Amino acid sequence: MAKEREQTISDAVIKRLPIYLRYLTYLDRMGVRTVSSHQMGKELGQNPAQIRKDLAYFGEFGRKGIGYEVRYLIKKIRQILHLDQLIPVALVGAGHLGTALARYNAFQQDNMRIVAIFDHSPLKAGREVDGIRIQPMEELKQTVKDKDIRVGIITVPDYAAQEVADQLVDAGIEAIMNFAPTIIHVPPNVRVHHADLTTELHSLAYYLRHPEYIVM
Amino acid sequence: MAKEREQTISDAVIKRLPIYLRYLTYLDRMGVRTVSSHQMGKELGQNPAQIRKDLAYFGEFGRKGIGYEVRYLIKKIRQILHLDQLIPVALVGAGHLGTALARYNAFQQDNMRIVAIFDHSPLKAGREVDGIRIQPMEELKQTVKDKDIRVGIITVPDYAAQEVADQLVDAGIEAIMNFAPTIIHVPPNVRVHHADLTTELHSLAYYLRHPEYIVM
DNA sequence: TAGATTGTTAATCGATTAACAATC
DNA sequence: TAGATTGTTAATCGATTAACAATC
After folding, report:
1. B80 — contact with chain A (CB < 8 Å)?
2. Beta bridge partners of B99
3. For testing the chain B interface, which of A202, A212, A214, A215 should be mutated: the one with the most B CBs within 10 Å?
4. Mean per-residue pLDDT for B129-150?
5. Of A62, A84, A173, B118, which residue is most buried, by most CB within 10 angstroms?
6. Does domain A88-201 sit in CATH 3.40.50.720?
7. pLDDT of A106-159, one tens digit each?
8. pLDDT digit string (tens) for B68-119?
9. A188 and chain B in contact, CB less than 8 A
10. Which CATH number fits domain B11-80: 3.30.1450.10, 1.10.10.10, 1.10.3730.10, 3.40.50.2300?
11. CA A95 to CA A92: how far, in whole Å?
């Protein structure tokens, strides 16, 4: 039933799946059993055809005339995203942002679990964040191996980000989420997502009304 | 010289401008005077033609045969993004993530300045974060008016996000950056950017190698 | 001058949306 | 049965890239 012929699927599609998943999880909590692409599209601000097409890349999950069974679709999307298995995550950089993310509940959900925290500063090593001991950078490689860590989150200052990325790659990490405000370069077999908080905020400024100009 | 005929410019273009700006600022700090679209593209992983085209929407900033003057281009991009004026920002939700962002240096740069922090909890009201007093929600509307606040950052839990968004809109805010893991709905004259930390992380899982399947 | 690089038009590529037969 | 809704193909739309004349 499911198409296992993985034609490469575009990033845009993959980025939407977790959004669908989140809404479906909400519906499930509300006790809703089935949902149509139309309903989902309305709530999420997306074209229903797009939602159907996105899902259809991976199989036939719906029923004509009925819609999608919420629980079943949740299960399927979790499978597609590999969120049906526990994914151990390492966080590097125990500053304000790093510790906030480690404590951030929404972040610790859905089987992605921060299981190790590293920091460059000897002052921080030994402290705990949410029950996880902060380790020195020297222990990164071994810990990644021991705990089977597959994803790294970078929350160090920009000037240190590339060096940390190199170390994560060297330790055998498969994917990196970078919160440092700089572009990092990694080999093609490692996936990087840039969570660009600053650029996101700055692009917002463009859309402000500008009363100081007379616009006509 | 600059085209003031604002054909609507696509979001994709606007989102790239702060990335250019950041790199140019770095170059300036390094003492670099001019840069070509080719150089920029190489560093930022982007097609040079795209960079030239993006910039050309707003004017002729480069010189044929030479490239772009770094300082001049910085100035121009800052103008385009309205970052040449101080933009007062309010942050709502003084939890872990909120306080971390308020203290986050990269966030307090480039004329976007968090000038007020609000929290629902009476326990938090009165405390300070980085010299800014946490105010109760009741004071939001008046403070937004008094301090001419134009942008709101939402860092409350998901279930509270829509309510906070409504209050920000009611107070006359022009743009919202939403960190709560949920979609919020606002009138069309208000701009919302979703900083979707969780979905970003979850989509990363898709790209992990999956040794448990035999892929052929 | 020769080489480099812009700004811009044209070509390509990819993503979104519309439409509809199939069917619950 | 009639109405609803999927999965999918075709049409549209938009964004990216290539190419090149202009020119520093």
Report:
1. yes
2. none
3. A202
4. 97
5. B118
6. yes
7. 777 789 999 999 999 988 988 999 999 999 999 999 999 999 999 999 999 999
8. 999 999 999 999 999 999 999 999 999 999 999 999 877 777 899 999 999 9
9. no
10. 1.10.10.10
11. 9
